[in-house]
Specification:
With 419 residues, this protein is an alpha/beta fold. 37% of the residues lie in helices and 16% in strands. The chain contains 14 helices and 17 strands. Strands 4-10-9-8-7-5-6 form a seven-stranded mixed sheet, sandwiched between helices. Strands 13-14-17-16 form a four-stranded antiparallel sheet, covered by helices on one side. The chain has a two-stranded antiparallel ribbon with strand order 1-2. Strand 5, helix 5 and strand 6 form a beta-alpha-beta unit. Helix 2 packs antiparallel against helix 10 and helix 3 crosses helix 10.
Length: 419
């Protein structure tokens, strides 16, 4: 189940106090090239609240130890913090139990884990269906599997609004389809995909569903059971947590059937030179020393979101998105890319006569941080016959006044380039 920004529930608490929220994020309080920072690169990574920074500093200052096998006080505290973080993520995603959460480095590793551990059970001729709007992280692992095992990789197309062609899905699903892998929210277009419907069709064909939730978790309430996800992946740094930590949700019965992703300490029951027996999930997939501080920081980030209220965040971000779309749509020479009816706060654009990298460079001199490029989504750019776009992406701490700064910055771009 997802609750898109296009139709948030009416907030039961007062609107966000933007001054107070922004005070929680120390990185926002700075000047860039002599201008107050306007940070609109949130789809690449979000800034971190002081609560996350403090939680990680506190762990390193007082509780730093390796987890699970130590019996001294610090090891016990570190283990408790690590496993509490796992339980926090399970609650955040509405997973049935904490054992369904595997800590990884991020969404990319989570998808590679599934491709390696589940995909190695596929045989030549088995099928994986992906979509035209996927991030490279949900394309390349399946291509590697195709090249190694001879599986068939199929692609569900999208239309020129940036919506998946669900009318084409059933024709792609056969008795050989083993997995459908789909992005929850597009990082290049902002499109929110109907994963519940896709799950229903995939399951009817006997296939599993993997959802790339990297862009979605900071903006949508996610219920992995209600949406029918068999696997769900996300990265901590996209949801106001630290880099280097992420999560894979997998249904317990599937994780139990999957072989280890990597070998080493922690993921074993017993090792001899003749044979190794493996630990049950999630330890089976967490070889070596884990990123304990990252897990602690991620838990603090999820607590921070809960403290603000997901409904209030959604209402604020929907207001920003509507305002941004209205302001940019009125600009001469600016073309917005993607027009899905349900979308995240991503404003992807091209400016006539201006390369996106030049746009981003000039905006940077005005203190405005956006992203320019293909956004690790070459097939999306190919669909629209573009080399790149300029992308402004919104978060809970952004204000309407920053959209106004962006609009003024675009005018400056056009002046500098003589457009």
């Amino acid at each position: 189940m997802t609750r898109p920004l296009a139709a948030p529930r009416p907030p039961t608490r007062p609107p966000l106090d933007l001054d107070a929220v922004r005070a929680d994020f120390p990185c926002l309080d700075q000047e860039v090239h002599g201008q107050p920072l306007v940070y609109l690169d949130n789809a690449a990574t979000t800034q971190k609240p002081q609560a996350v920074i403090a939680a990680m500093a506190r762990y390193y200052a007082h509780d730093n130890a390796n987890v699970h096998r130590g019996v001294h006080a610090l090891a016990e505290r570190a283990t408790e913090a690590y496993e509490q973080a796992r339980a926090k993520v399970a609650h955040f995603l509405h997973a049935a139990e904490a054992a369904e959460i595997v800590f990884v480095r991020g969404t990319t590793e989570a998808i590679n884990l599934v491709a390696a551990s589940l995909g190695n059970r596929f045989t030549a001729g088995d099928e994986v269906v992906i979509t035209e709007m996927e991030h490279h992280s949900n394309i390349v692992p399946w291509q590697l599997l195709r090249d190694r095992l001879g599986i068939c990789l199929k692609v569900l197309p999208m239309d020129d609004q940036g919506c998946l062609r669900l009318d084409k899905l059933d024709a792609l699903l056969t008795e050989r389809t083993r997995l459908v892998a789909v992005v929850h929210g597009s990082n290049a277009l902002g499109t929110i995909n109907p994963v519940r419907e896709i799950a229903t069709r995939a399951h009817a064909a006997g296939a599993l569903l993997l959802v790339d939730g990297a862009q979605a978790v900071a903006h949508l309430e996610v219920d992995v059971h209600a949406m029918g996800a068999d696997f769900y992946a996300f990265s901590g740094h996209k949801v106001y947590g630290p880099m280097g930590i992420g999560c894979l949700y997998g249904r317990r019965e599937l994780l139990e059937q999957m072989a280890p992703y990597q070998g080493g300490g922690e993921m074993i029951r017993h090792v001899t030179f003749e044979e190794t027996t493996y630990a049950p999930p999630p330890a089976r997939f967490e070889a070596g020393t884990p990123n304990v501080a990252g897990a602690v920081g991620l838990a603090a980030a999820l607590d921070y979101l809960d403290s603000l209220g997901r409904e209030r965040i959604a209402a604020h971000e929907q207001d920003l998105l509507a305002y941004g779309l209205a302001q940019l749509a009125g600009l001469t020479g600016v073309r917005l890319i993607g027009n899905a009816p349900e979308r995240l706060g991503i404003l992807s654009m091209v400016i006539a006569g201006a390369h996106p990298h030049d746009v981003a460079t000039i905006l940077d001199r005005d203190g405005i941080a956006i992203r320019a490029g293909h956004h690790c989504a070459h097939p999306v750019m190919d669909h629209f016959h573009l080399p790149a776009t300029a992308r402004a992406s919104l978060a809970l701490y952004n204000r309407r006044a920053e959209i106004d700064r962006l609009v003024a910055g675009i005018h400056h771009v056009q002046e500098v380039l003589g457009r």
